[in-house]
Amino acid sequence: MLSRLTRSRTLAVCAAPVVALLAVAAFAPLPFSVAQPGTTVDVLGKDKGAQVITISGAPVRRTEGQLRMTTIVATSPDTRVDLPDVIDGWFRTDRAVMPRDSVYPSGDSVREIQQHNREQMKQSQDEATRAALTYLNREDEDIEIALKLADVGGPSAGLLFSLGIVDKLDGDGDGGDLTGGRVVAGTGTIEADGTVGPVGGVPLKTQAAGRDGATVFLVPEAECAEAQAERPEGLRLIPVTTLKGAVDALVALEKGTGKVPSC
After folding, report:
1. Using one digit for the tens of pLDDT, what is the confidence trace for 30-64?
2. Which segment of the chain is annotated as a signal peptide (predicted)?
């Protein structure tokens, strides 16, 4: 006949597998990436010595202020992330633990991922150019636009590219700058029809923007709550859904007329 286990022994027996699992988890690589605020780049200026936006075939305005696209930096797909890394990132406001598949396409090599990001960036640049020229009703003109960013991939600079093109060609439409002389930062994908889409890592991007002097941050409307989570003091959040909405909000902010949307 089997003897009954005492309560303490039962707990000990049940706890043993849990302890073993925790021990394994502590030393086993986990399917996460750890991200932090990355660089920001003024699309109206230069990046590593090269002009970000180059326009030919049309007069280009001399702009004031800045339009800064924002990035995050994540551990590479082949970097080992262990339980202590996850725990550390979980409790820090300047770090974010993200499923690796949400940062990098699952199953791809580092080289394939880099190529994928370059292709996304090229597509984003093409869409940004079309969106800006369509917004300005100048899509049929012979205007050549080249966009260049060093060491940045993905589609999340699309909105800022479009705004930079609009500012260089037309400003606020009345002789002024879209920025009003401010440091404006933001993020968001862009479609050729001007639709702004959500991106990842918004709380980290607001921190990067605040660190680099921005006082205004343009955020895809669907990500307002995320942007509020770690918003630096003094950084004004403006939700946007379209390129036109973003331009209208910046013009209203610059001229002090009309309602400026807020998260």
Report:
1. 677 788 999 999 999 999 999 999 999 999 999 99
2. 1-28
Q: What would the pLDDT profile of 165-220 be if each residue is shown by its tens digit?
A: 999 999 999 999 999 999 999 999 999 999 999 998 999 999 999 999 999 999 99
CA distance 37 to 41: 13
Q: Which residues of 193-231 are buried (b: 16+ CB within 10 A; e: fewer)?
A: ebebbebbbbbbbbbbbbebebebbbbbbebbebbeebb
Helix, strand, or coil (residue 51):
strand
User: Domains in the chain, ordered, with CATH?
Assistant: 28-255 (3.30.230)
114: buried, middle or exposed (CB in 10 Å: 19+, 13-18, 0-12)? middle
Q: What is the pTM of this model?
A: 0.82
